Amino acid sequence: MIDFENKSLFKLKQNTDFAEKITPLLIDGEEVLDAFKSMRDGVVFTSKRIIAVNVQGITGSKKDFTSLPYKNIIAYSIETTGTLDIDSELELYFSELGKVRFEFSGKCRLMDIARYIAQYAL
Protein backbone atom coordinates (compact mmCIF):
# COMPACT_ATOMS: atom_id res chain seq x y z
CA MET A 1 0.00 0.00 0.00
CA ILE A 2 1.16 3.52 -0.67
CA ASP A 3 2.45 5.18 2.48
CA PHE A 4 0.32 8.32 2.27
CA GLU A 5 1.59 9.58 5.61
CA ASN A 6 5.29 9.64 4.73
CA LYS A 7 5.29 9.82 0.96
CA SER A 8 4.38 12.89 -1.00
CA LEU A 9 3.23 11.97 -4.49
CA PHE A 10 4.90 13.77 -7.34
CA LYS A 11 2.75 16.24 -9.18
CA LEU A 12 0.15 14.35 -11.13
CA LYS A 13 -0.53 15.12 -14.77
CA GLN A 14 -3.58 14.03 -16.69
CA ASN A 15 -2.84 10.75 -18.45
CA THR A 16 -5.04 7.79 -19.40
CA ASP A 17 -2.35 5.07 -19.06
CA PHE A 18 -3.52 3.96 -15.62
CA ALA A 19 -7.21 4.06 -16.54
CA GLU A 20 -6.66 0.96 -18.67
CA LYS A 21 -4.64 -0.80 -15.95
CA ILE A 22 -7.42 -0.58 -13.35
CA THR A 23 -10.27 -1.68 -15.65
CA PRO A 24 -10.34 -5.25 -14.20
CA LEU A 25 -10.93 -3.74 -10.72
CA LEU A 26 -14.08 -1.84 -11.67
CA ILE A 27 -17.46 -3.05 -10.46
CA ASP A 28 -20.76 -2.95 -12.39
CA GLY A 29 -21.82 0.64 -12.99
CA GLU A 30 -18.45 2.11 -11.99
CA GLU A 31 -16.81 4.35 -14.55
CA VAL A 32 -13.50 6.18 -14.81
CA LEU A 33 -13.83 9.94 -14.32
CA ASP A 34 -10.20 10.96 -14.75
CA ALA A 35 -6.72 9.45 -14.60
CA PHE A 36 -3.37 10.95 -13.67
CA LYS A 37 0.25 9.88 -13.71
CA SER A 38 3.40 11.02 -11.95
CA MET A 39 6.84 9.71 -12.92
CA ARG A 40 5.88 6.07 -12.19
CA ASP A 41 2.77 6.05 -10.02
CA GLY A 42 -0.78 6.87 -10.97
CA VAL A 43 -4.17 7.81 -9.56
CA VAL A 44 -7.53 7.04 -11.11
CA PHE A 45 -10.76 8.66 -9.96
CA THR A 46 -13.85 6.60 -10.62
CA SER A 47 -17.50 7.24 -9.91
CA LYS A 48 -17.16 5.26 -6.63
CA ARG A 49 -13.56 5.56 -5.39
CA ILE A 50 -9.98 6.59 -5.91
CA ILE A 51 -7.54 3.91 -7.02
CA ALA A 52 -3.89 4.74 -6.34
CA VAL A 53 -1.37 2.68 -8.29
CA ASN A 54 2.12 2.31 -6.82
CA VAL A 55 4.59 0.95 -9.37
CA GLN A 56 7.30 -1.04 -7.61
CA GLY A 57 10.63 -2.63 -8.45
CA ILE A 58 13.29 -1.81 -11.00
CA THR A 59 11.29 -3.04 -13.98
CA GLY A 60 7.95 -1.67 -12.78
CA SER A 61 6.18 -4.96 -13.42
CA LYS A 62 4.98 -5.19 -9.79
CA LYS A 63 2.11 -2.85 -8.92
CA ASP A 64 0.19 -2.13 -5.73
CA PHE A 65 -3.43 -1.00 -6.15
CA THR A 66 -4.98 0.88 -3.21
CA SER A 67 -8.75 1.45 -3.25
CA LEU A 68 -9.98 4.53 -1.39
CA PRO A 69 -13.81 4.54 -1.36
CA TYR A 70 -15.48 7.93 -1.31
CA LYS A 71 -17.87 6.67 1.38
CA ASN A 72 -14.96 6.60 3.90
CA ILE A 73 -14.11 10.27 3.43
CA ILE A 74 -15.00 12.38 6.45
CA ALA A 75 -13.70 15.73 5.11
CA TYR A 76 -11.95 17.11 2.04
CA SER A 77 -10.37 20.28 0.75
CA ILE A 78 -9.58 21.44 -2.78
CA GLU A 79 -7.29 24.23 -3.91
CA THR A 80 -7.80 25.34 -7.49
CA THR A 81 -5.28 26.92 -9.82
CA GLY A 82 -4.62 30.65 -9.80
CA THR A 83 -3.13 33.19 -12.16
CA LEU A 84 0.49 32.50 -11.29
CA ASP A 85 0.07 29.19 -9.46
CA ILE A 86 -0.96 26.57 -12.02
CA ASP A 87 -1.01 23.66 -9.57
CA SER A 88 -4.09 22.42 -7.75
CA GLU A 89 -4.41 20.21 -4.68
CA LEU A 90 -6.86 17.77 -3.19
CA GLU A 91 -6.68 16.80 0.49
CA LEU A 92 -8.88 13.99 1.73
CA TYR A 93 -9.41 12.85 5.30
CA PHE A 94 -10.37 9.20 5.67
CA SER A 95 -11.64 7.54 8.82
CA GLU A 96 -8.91 5.19 10.10
CA LEU A 97 -6.40 6.11 7.35
CA GLY A 98 -5.95 9.82 7.97
CA LYS A 99 -4.97 12.46 5.43
CA VAL A 100 -4.27 11.72 1.78
CA ARG A 101 -2.96 14.55 -0.41
CA PHE A 102 -2.71 14.77 -4.18
CA GLU A 103 -1.04 17.57 -6.13
CA PHE A 104 -1.99 18.15 -9.76
CA SER A 105 0.00 19.96 -12.40
CA GLY A 106 -1.82 21.46 -15.34
CA LYS A 107 -5.44 21.04 -16.30
CA CYS A 108 -7.71 18.67 -14.38
CA ARG A 109 -11.43 18.36 -13.63
CA LEU A 110 -10.98 18.89 -9.90
CA MET A 111 -14.42 20.47 -9.41
CA ASP A 112 -16.10 17.46 -11.06
CA ILE A 113 -14.12 15.11 -8.82
CA ALA A 114 -15.08 17.19 -5.76
CA ARG A 115 -18.74 16.88 -6.75
CA TYR A 116 -18.46 13.07 -6.82
CA ILE A 117 -16.70 13.09 -3.46
CA ALA A 118 -19.44 15.28 -1.98
CA GLN A 119 -22.14 13.02 -3.38
CA TYR A 120 -20.73 10.02 -1.51
CA ALA A 121 -19.21 11.71 1.55
CA LEU A 122 -22.17 13.92 2.54
UniProtKB/TrEMBL annotation:
Bacterial Pleckstrin homology domain: residues covered: 12-120
Membrane spanning stretches: none
Gene3D superfamilies according to UniProt: Bacterial Pleckstrin homology domain
PANTHER family for this protein: BHLH DOMAIN-CONTAINING PROTEIN, HYPOTHETICAL CYTOSOLIC PROTEIN
Protein's name in the database: PH domain-containing protein
Species, as recorded: Microbulbifer elongatus
